[in-house]
Specification:
single chain, two-stranded parallel sheet, mainly alpha
């Protein structure tokens, strides 16, 4: 996370509808979910819990054991 710069103010996204619109726009620009997080925190001040609700974590695919014959 970036260090807070008191001379640079970022827009604050407090409304879930504004936050979801910003996320939709950033998803088009970013190649991965990590890039979306980076762009979001660089450009806006947000409640990270609200972002986590709108961007659930990606669970890895389970690796199944081969069946026994």
């Amino acid at each position: 996370m970036l260090n807070a710069d008191p001379l640079f103010t970022r827009p604050t996204l407090t409304s879930p509808s504004l936050l979801s619109r910003a996320l939709d726009g950033l998803r088009r620009k970013a190649g991965s979910q990590a890039e979306v997080w980076q762009l979001l925190t660089q450009n806006y001040t947000v409640d990270l819990d609200a972002v986590a609700i709108l961007m659930p974590s990606e669970d890895p695919e389970p690796t199944w054991l081969a069946t026994r014959d």
